Amino acid sequence: DLIVPVHGSLGAVACEWCKAPMDFDEFCEEVRTKVKDIYDVDESAPTESTNIACPSCGKAGVKPTTVLYGSSLPEAFFEHFERDVPTFDLLIIAGTSLTVGPANQVAAQ
Hints:
The chain is α+β, with helices and mostly antiparallel strands. The protein has three helices and three strands. It has helices at residues 24-34, 75-83, 105-108; strands at residues 13-15, 21-22, 62-64. A three-stranded antiparallel β-sheet has the order 2-1-3. The longest helix is centred in the first third of the chain and has 11 residues, at 24-34. The two termini are 19 Å apart.
């Protein structure tokens, strides 16, 4: 079975600068202690947000591995597209309108 999350995942965290992964639970704790609670639910939350620094490079670029509009898709998408898609007997595409490339080219292949 092969599943390629084209637009990343909310369940994985990495640095946008150096690409080093960060432990998900550690990231959640950093969010809880460094990001302002705009809904006033957590009384222990800070009153102002501060950056979450990457443990590897120190830059403020740690976030879930989701791909935002205008950003490049993960290299794995292109690798699987070229190598694996032509060999598929069945391809299931879910959760997309197929209006934005290059992901919309998969169905045409």
